[in-house]
From TrEMBL:
Coiled-coil region: none
Family statement: Belongs to the glycosyl hydrolase 68 family.
UniProt-listed Pfam families: Glyco_hydro_68 (PF02435)
Protein name (database record): Levansucrase
Enzyme class: transferase
The keyword Glycosyltransferase belongs to this UniProt entry's keyword annotation: yes
Organism per entry: Sphingobium xenophagum
Keywords: Glycosyltransferase, Transferase
InterPro entries assigned: Glyco_hydro_68, Glyco_hydro_beta-prop_sf
Length: 374
């Protein structure tokens, strides 16, 4: 009988331990030079080896980022998002164009995921979120998890991925652990989650897993975020499992969850925003949060006693988002509303401050049940 997670809980009592006057925060981000002048970029991730380390490809790292044309309202980018392929060598970025051909994806837009290079280095498997439905007239909140594979070819500094295999929907919400209703209130921060698939290979049992942002089924609370997990069976089919962590009654979105291993322990990280904490409870800063366990299925304990690893600084509480911690403890994110101390007055101010490009990388130090910025 395969093991099942014993769901751990991120609670109001944990978050109440955050003292906003002394909470750890990232350094202030200065205005950033765009990687691609004509596009907004956000939520980016490297092509990784099975062990989670970024793969060395053509002397650098392949990245996939969400992208959109520079629209008057930067929030409108979510409704037209497409994955973009980039190659970085040292600090130089090169745009390689859309990841998937036009009209290829089954949805109206593409959201976050992860990408894994095969051990022999010849194939990339892309796990990603299909948002909406192809050809829909009104933008819907439907979220589905798909994978597709492509052959990787490198000749000199020319990198090609082709042809992509037909996308396969490999996981669906069961309405037992994870809600099938994605609409929520329909406003930013209220929609529900079945997105952000992140691959993890557990050396303890030599099995492959997918973590994802989910919403608890049949919750009585509007704030019902969870870190979901699924396991690949011997038949290559994915089995949905109970959540690793749930934040029922506390928080609506535990976004882009992922696990790394360090010194024999498992570290689970996710991103969340102040505005998606329950209105009648404690709230932490927009930031990187995490838990630690001795095994993948827990029990999980909040890092630093509260779960908060670091937040955006009080003088720039919206400056970055969507943090990804790599096995070497490098932390990647994107520049969001840079240099803005209060929520934007209007879309003109939001556009003027939206970074839309990778943020400066940070680095963590981890010691047992504590983690902090180097």
């Amino acid at each position: 009988m395969s093991e099942m997670p014993a769901t751990s809980h991120w609670t109001a009592e944990d978050v109440e331990r955050i003292d906003c006057s002394t909470a750890p925060c990232a350094p202030v981000i200065p205005a950033q030079r765009r990687v691609i002048e004509a596009l907004d970029l956000w939520d980016y991730w490297p092509v990784q080896n099975v062990d989670g380390h970024p793969a060395d490809i053509a002397g650098g790292t392949l990245f996939i980022a969400l992208s959109a044309p520079i629209l008057p309202d930067p929030d409108a980018r979510h409704a037209v998002a497409r994955m973009r392929l980039l190659h970085r060598v040292d600090s130089e970025w090169r745009d390689l164009g859309p990841v998937l051909p036009d009209g290829f994806s089954p949805g109206s837009r593409e959201w976050s995921g992860s990408a894994i290079l095969s051990p022999e280095g010849g194939t990339i498997t892309l796990y990603y979120t299909v948002a909406g439905v192809r050809g829909e007239v009104e933008t819907s909140f439907a979220q589905r998890l798909f994978y597709s594979c492509a052959a990787l070819a490198v000749q000199g500094d020319t990198i090609t991925l082709s042809p992509w295999s037909e996308p396969v929907e490999f996981l669906t919400p069961d309405d037992v652990h994870y809600s099938r209703d994605m609409a929520g209130g329909g406003a930013v921060g209220t929609i529900k989650a079945f997105r952000d698939p992140a691959f993890f290979h557990d050396p303890a049992d030599n099995q492959d897993y997918i973590l994802f942002a989910g919403s608890i089924a049949r919750s009585r609370s509007a704030w019902n975020g969870a870190v979901g997990i699924a396991r690949r069976g011997v038949d290559q089919e994915w089995q949905i499992l109970p959540p690793l962590v749930e934040a029922d009654g506390l928080n609506n979105e535990l976004e882009r969850p992922h696990v790394i291993m360090r010194d024999g322990r498992y570290y689970l990280f996710w991103s969340t925003q102040t505005k998606v904490f329950a209105a009648d409870g404690p709230a932490g800063p927009t930031g990187l949060y995490g838990m630690v366990a001795g095994r993948l299925f827990g029990p999980w304990r909040p890092l630093n006693g509260s779960g908060l690893v670091f937040g955006n600084p009080p003088s720039a509480p919206f400056q970055a988002y969507s943090w990804l911690v790599l096995p070497d403890l490098c932390v990647q994110s994107f520049a969001d509303l840079v240099g803005l101390a209060e929520p934007p007055r209007d879309v003109v101010q939001a556009r003027a401050h939206f970074g839309g490009t990778p943020a400066p990388e940070l680095r963590l130090i981890i010691d047992g049940h504590k983690a902090w910025l180097a």
